[in-house]
Every structure is written in structure tokens, then in C-alpha cells.
UniProtKB/TrEMBL annotation:
Tree of life domain: Bacteria
Annotated family: Belongs to the GerABKC lipoprotein family.
UniProt protein name: Uncharacterized protein
Keywords linked to the UniProt accession: Germination, Lipoprotein, Membrane, Palmitate, Signal
Subcellular compartments: Membrane
Gene3D superfamilies, sorted: Nutrient germinant receptor protein C, domain 3
Residues covered by the Spore germination GerAC-like C-terminal domain: 223-375
BP GO annotations: spore germination
Membrane topology: Lipid-anchor
Spore germination protein N-terminal domain ranges (all copies): 26-200
One GO cellular component, as annotated: membrane
Alphabetical list of InterPro entries matching this protein: GerAC_N, Spore_GerAC-like, Spore_GerAC-like_C, Spore_GerAC_C_sf
Length: 392
């Protein structure tokens, strides 16, 4: 009997030795959680500058503060001869272990893009805690101010464009949100132009009671190709890009005829076909664009086919003007060189050193707009008529 008990005791002890212990357990409140990273470069001192946005631990469990309290945001600044040296420079004052795997966004400054982003991307993405699913932005704003821009109603900074860029873009596609993985891939693609949405601080549009408050906004796109910074375009300069990209979810067209406003359409569906022809080895692209739209406002009595015709004319003009803006700035806004590389490689090969980004590259533009919905009213019906009809 004693032998059996001894055997059981030895067996239990052996099982206990196999159990995993939590010797390195760290309390969650004893860790710094970085949620956004900013990367800058000072060409005069030839150093990289990194910024880290950290949230108070209370935001890990909840996304709002008690009434009357402002969200707590900590912003660190580090310097170094490389990206990683500048990031790890933050450790000297971090006080506690710092975790980078919760970073949702990385922001590049314009002057960093000008200095070359490929080396920066390499250094940043090699770190094991870097997630390629992070959102990628660019800005010419001071990153410390951008990271300090609050959300509404004392909510977490996680509820801003910096961390949730698609919330607004589903309602109005100012530009396309970009993942870091897409930037990494597109930088290595021949003939590909990388687009980075720009964030700016708007100081005038919103007030908290009588006091102005800062809010983030989309204000344009930065362009990079073959590690060369190509430039920046503000929102108004690339209206035509919306109609050549099927990923545009929702964007309005203000309808004008002879300088008079006649209505507003919201485009909610886009189909684009790019047809190439080659003349003496030079490509010419013809665009067929089909738009599905909803009527939001009708400021003048018109038939649906008249509204559609006006919209088609405006879209065609915007597409042409935006393309010419790109030619002037040497930016392939519609990705026509990449289209040639992917679908007409044999023709692209002799052109790759000096692709003809010129006015003749864009040929015919055919636009078809279909108004599929007129809202709660019939097409030519006023609110007064609808009310009277209901009473009858």
C-alpha cells in the first residue's frame, strides 16, 4: 500500500514539473502601449526623428473618459542615425517595457519622403513587432501636434482618422486609405506609383461650445515612385482620379450649367475599362467610365437624361484636367504605365527608361452616368408636391 502511495506521489510530482509556469508574467498596466508611430528626417543634421503616441492604460479597457476629463495622450520623441536608433532612443525615458505590436498607424513626414523612403521602410518593417497591417499616411504638419489632435466628446484618440481612416471614406471617398503592406509591395513594383493619403490639422471647422478645436482632415495625396518623391496634390487638383478608380465608394458631383448650379449627384458605383492601342510603339489609352449615381439635390426643373448629360460632361472634363495636372508634375495619376507593364509587357520594355507620360497618352474618354435613385422624392417632384400628394 505504501509503495502504491509512493508511486502516485512521484507521478504527481512529475506532472507538476511538466506544468508551464508564469515566471515572466507582467501586469498589463505595467506596459507602455504605442498605438501610432511618426517618422521624420532632418537633412541638415542628417538624423532620423521618431515619434510614438501612447494612450493611458484606461483606454485599453474602455474608449471614453469620465465626463469633463480630456483623454490622456503621451507623445515621445527620439533621435538617431537610423530609424531603429531613433525609435529605441525612446527607451531611455520610457520608464517601463514598451510594446510596439499595438501600433495601428505610421505617419511619414514630407521631408522624409523627399530624402527617400525605401531605407526607412526596410528598417521599420524588419522589427519583429511591426505589423504590416498598419495604416500609412504622410503629412507636412508637426507630428507632435497631429498626434495630440483629439476625437469628439472626450473619446479615445483611437477614434480619429489616424486610427480609423475608413469610417469617413465610406461616406465620402476623399482618398483611399493605404496599408503599410501595400506601400512595401508597391515600392518594389516596376512602373508603380505609390499613393499616401495626407493628414492635416483643421483648426476652424469645429467648435466646442465657443472655443475652436483641432480636428484631422484628409487634404490630398503624396506620390512616390521608385523611391523618388514625385510631389503632393491637394484635393481639388485630383477630382478626376475619383472617376477612374473603382475603389471609390461614394463621392459627389456638383452639377453646373452655364455657371448656374442645377443639382448634386452622389456616385456610388464605378466601372472603368482602359483600352490601349499602340501607334509607332507609343501607347494611347482610351477610357470607358460607367457611373451609378443617386440624385441628392435638384435645383432646377430638369429631366433625368438632361441631368445625366451634364454629369457626363463634368466628369469627362475633370478626368482630362486631372490627367494633365499629373503630366505637368510628372505623376502617373491613373497608373497607365503600370497598366502597360502588367498587360503589355513587350511594348513596355523598350519604354521603361523614359515612359511617355504626355498629353497624347490619354485618348478618348467615354462617360456614361446612370441615375438609379432620386431619394425620397420622384425625379422632378418637390418636397411641397410630395407633402400635398400624401395629404390627398
Amino acid at each position: 500500500m505504501k509503495r502504491i502511495m509512493r508511486s502516485k506521489s512521484i507521478f504527481v510530482l512529475l506532472i507538476m514539473l511538466l506544468l508551464t509556469g508564469c515566471w515572466d508574467l507582467v501586469d498589463i498596466q505595467d506596459i507602455n502601449y504605442v498605438v501610432a508611430v511618426g517618422l521624420d528626417y532632418d537633412p541638415e543634421r542628417e538624423i532620423y526623428i521618431s515619434y510614438a503616441q501612447m494612450l493611458d492604460f484606461s483606454f485599453v479597457a474602455k474608449q471614453e473618459q469620465p465626463p469633463g476629463q480630456d483623454p490622456v495622450v503621451y507623445i515621445g520623441r527620439g533621435e538617431g542615425k537610423s530609424v531603429n536608433m531613433s525609435l529605441t532612443n525612446l527607451y531611455k525615458t520610457a520608464q517601463m517595457k514598451t510594446l510596439w505590436s499595438h501600433v495601428t498607424t505610421v505617419v511619414f513626414t514630407e521631408r522624409l519622403l523627399e530624402s527617400g523612403v525605401e531605407e526607412v521602410i526596410d528598417g521599420y518593417t524588419r522589427f519583429s513587432e511591426t505589423r504590416l497591417s498598419q495604416w500609412a499616411f504622410a503629412t507636412n504638419e508637426p507630428i507632435e501636434q497631429l498626434f495630440a489632435t483629439p476625437a469628439f466628446f472626450n473619446l479615445s484618440t483611437l477614434l480619429t482618422l489616424l486610427h480609423k481612416p475608413n469610417e469617413i471614406l465610406e461616406q465620402r471617398t476623399f482618398s483611399l486609405a493605404t496599408r503599410l503592406k501595400d506601400v512595401v509591395i508597391e515600392l518594389t513594383e516596376p512602373a508603380k506609383t505609390v499613393q499616401l493619403p495626407s493628414l492635416k490639422i483643421n483648426t476652424t471647422q469645429w467648435k466646442k461650445n465657443e472655443e475652436s478645436v483641432n480636428k484631422m482632415e484628409y487634404d490630398g495625396i503624396y506620390f512616390v515612385k521608385d523611391n523618388d518623391y514625385k510631389g503632393f496634390l491637394p484635393l481639388k487638383a485630383y477630382q478626376g482620379m475619383h472617376w477612374v478608380d473603382e475603389r471609390t465608394e461614394r463621392y459627389p458631383i456638383y452639377l453646373e450649367e452655364n455657371g448656374e448650379g442645377v443639382g448634386v449627384l452622389t456616385v456610388e458605383g464605378i466601372k472603368v475599362k482602359k483600352k490601349a492601342e499602340f501607334v509607332a510603339g507609343q501607347p494611347i489609352y482610351h477610357l470607358d467610365i460607367k457611373l451609378e449615381a443617386q440624385l441628392l439635390e435638384l435645383l432646377k426643373e430638369m429631366e433625368d437624361h438632361e441631368v445625366q448629360k451634364i454629369a457626363e460632361k463634368i466628369v469627362k472634363k475633370q478626368v482630362r484636367e486631372t490627367f494633365l495636372t499629373g503630366v505637368e508634375k510628372e505623376i502617373d495619376l491613373y497608373g497607365l504605365e503600370f497598366e502597360t507593364y502588367v498587360n503589355h509587357y513587350r511594348e513596355w520594355e523598350p519604354l521603361k527608361e523614359d515612359f511617355p507620360l504626355q498629353e497624347q497618352l490619354l485618348g478618348e474618354i467615354n462617360v456614361e452616368v446612370e441615375v438609379i435613385h432620386s431619394g425620397l422624392l420622384k425625379f422632378n417632384q418637390s418636397a411641397e408636391e410630395a407633402t400635398r400628394h400624401k395629404k390627398e
